[in-house]
Design goal:
single chain; Rossmann fold; Dna Ligase, domain 1; nine-stranded antiparallel β-sheet; globular
Length: 364
């Protein structure tokens, strides 16, 4: 297919970008879209969600309501998603009406921990040793094969460390099988990583591809706590991360954003963990310490605007505000280096992401 010049596909101001999902990522996308002069239409099953507050149009309906999805698609110029677990059928129904980025196939692949690892393997990217099981007997065999310690995860629907069970010896398998709801699981060897890192890849409608600077991440109880740029990893590791992420994005013929999480081993080698077809928590620092935020870049991709080549403007530490962390809000508001982003969630629960702070350092 001949590639069109940008100018032929740029959406004019006041065009509408549709977003499936109404969480904080949709909220920050909508704010970026508004800055570029676009309207946003949110499709969400949840009334009063974080994104609805800042969007021009909102449809409240379940993702399974195909007629509502089609009507939503007809009302917009282009669509993307902020909630990665939208049903494949909803993405397909939307794509049949208007362009939908990333493709429903990429979205479906990223929804399944086994499929995304197979995809990494096909692209020549190493993953932890793993097995899939959909019965208790299968689980026992898989744990014996993979060895302990291992992590058992539901193949679908897990997030923020939910849907996971750490197993130190095989006697815990019965508990794990029960706790995870007796459904298809993936058994992953425990990776003795020295660091975790993520790479965000952006690829435009014309195939232009850029990565955001690599981020180093620290998790607590499976949930992201702090991210750092620059990542401080060796040049070799850094290059390997970028190559792996770009190889996978290219192979998927990505249009949109695709975030990759990796483990870094003591010898500097890398190991793929998971991917997400949307903006990623670890890349929120781009809102205050980069020439383009991940949200603006995605809106640019959707609207057919030229992508910006991301460059780091300053060192940055991103801290998530989770549950009770909101009690420190006043402290952050007093810090002149802190850029505070609050998601407008009415209810503050333990483990719930309520906002984040970007602490921006001296200019590089
Ligand atoms: N195989 C593994 N070995 C070691 N640690 C792991 C493994 N899988 C997950 N973890 C830890 O748990 C965190 C969350 O797991 P992840 O698979 O990324 O699920 P989620 O979708 O909840 O982010 C990871 O960032 C990492 O700190
Ligand atoms: Mg993760």
């Amino acid at each position: 297919m001949p590639l069109m010049p940008h100018e032929d596909r740029m959406l004019p101001p006041c065009a509408t970008i549709g977003i499936m999902g109404g969480g904080q990522l949709g909220r920050m996308m909508a704010m970026a879209a508004a800055s570029l002069g676009y309207h946003v239409h949110i499709f969400t099953p949840e009334k009063d969600c974080p994104a609805a507050e800042v969007a021009r149009y909102v449809t409240v309906a379940p993702y399974e309501d195909v007629e509502a999805v089609e009507a939503f698609a007809r009302s917009v110029d282009v669509m993307t998603l902020e909630f990665e677990n939208i049903p494949y059928k909803a993405a397909q129904a939307a794509q049949a009406v208007k362009p939908f980025y990333p493709s429903p196939e990429i979205v479906a692949c990223a929804q399944h921990r086994g499929w995304e690892k197979q995809f990494a393997t096909d692209a020549g990217v190493p993953t932890p040793n793993y097995q899939i099981a959909d019965s208790y007997e299968g689980l026992l065999r898989a744990v014996e094969h993979v060895g302990t310690p291992c992590i058992i995860k539901t193949t679908t629907m897990g997030y923020d460390g939910k849907g996971q069970y750490r197993v130190l010896d095989a006697s815990q398998c019965a508990d794990a099988w029960q706790a995870l709801g007796m459904r298809e699981v993936i058994i992953e060897a425990f990776v003795p990583f020295v660091a975790e890192a993520s790479v965000m890849v952006a690829r435009g409608q014309d195939g232009t591809m850029h990565t955001f600077p690599v981020t180093r991440n620290e998790h607590e109880g499976g949930i992201l706590r702090t991210s750092y740029v620059p990542c401080g990893l060796s040049v070799t590791t850094h290059t390997a991360l970028e190559h792996a992420a770009c190889a996978m994005a290219q192979r998927a013929e990505l249009v949109g954003l695709l975030a990759f999480e990796f483990f870094i081993l003591a010898d500097g080698s890398i190991c793929f963990n998971e991917m997400a077809p949307r903006p990623h928590n670890s890349t929120h620092w781009t809102m205050d310490a980069c020439n383009v935020s991940q949200f603006e870049q995605l809106m640019r991709i959707c609207a057919g605007l030229p992508l910006k080549k991301p460059t780091l403007r300053a060192t940055c530490r991103m801290v998530n505000l989770i549950g009770d962390d909101m009690e420190q809000l006043t402290k952050w508001h007093h810090d002149p280096h802190a850029h505070v982003h609050v998601y407008g969630k009415a209810e503050c629960r333990e483990g719930r992401k309520m906002g984040h702070v970007n602490i921006v350092g001296d200019n590089l």
